[in-house]
Design a protein that fits this description.
By secondary structure, the protein is of the alpha/beta class. The protein has one domain: Rossmann fold, CATH 3.40.50.2300. Helices cover 39% and strands 16% of the residues. It is built from five helices and five strands. Strand 4, helix 4 and strand 5 form a beta-alpha-beta unit. It is globular, with a radius of gyration of 16 Å.
């Protein structure tokens, strides 16, 4: 009888790793966020886009599971981009990740289809980790952060 090389506690990994897309015009913030996500979620493939055009290209090419979207982008703003992406890919979870922590932006973000809204300035990293864990677990997104 052949020995099984897998240990009983090991869960087989999916062939397609989960993907996240960071959409922000600030390259340093994209890099910092990418490093943070990769260190907390080693299987997560993290993509980047600096503007709306690149975000649409990355989304069409890779269909990420999760998008972290800034509002203030060159060209098309993140709210319009969120609406556009959600119309094409309603299964993608979008987290608005912005410096504009005002109630009117929060309301507009959810009206455009965002699933979560986090302020860059007041974000507690553990909340982002919990949200990403929740999303990657494949659970239905019902935001408690609205």
């Amino acid at each position: 009888m052949k020995a099984n090389n897998r240990t009983p506690d090991k869960v087989p990994e999916s062939r397609n790793p989960p993907k996240a897309l960071i959409v922000d015009d600030n390259s340093m913030l994209r890099e910092t966020t990418r490093i943070f996500l990769e260190s907390n979620f080693p299987r997560l493939r993290v993509l980047e886009a600096q503007d709306g055009k690149e975000a649409i290209q990355q989304t069409n090419n890779h269909e990420p599971d999760l998008i972290l979207m800034d509002i203030g982008l060159p060209g098309e703003n993140g709210l319009r981009l969120t609406r556009k992406i959600k119309n094409l890919y309603p299964q993608i979870t979008i987290i608005i990740f912005t410096n504009y922590d005002l109630s009117e932006y929060r309301k507009a973000a959810f009206e455009c289809g965002a699933d979560f809204f986090f302020s860059k300035s007041s974000l507690q990293k553990n909340k982002l980790v919990k949200a990403v864990e929740f999303i990657l677990a494949g659970k239905e997104v019902k935001s408690r952060y609205r």
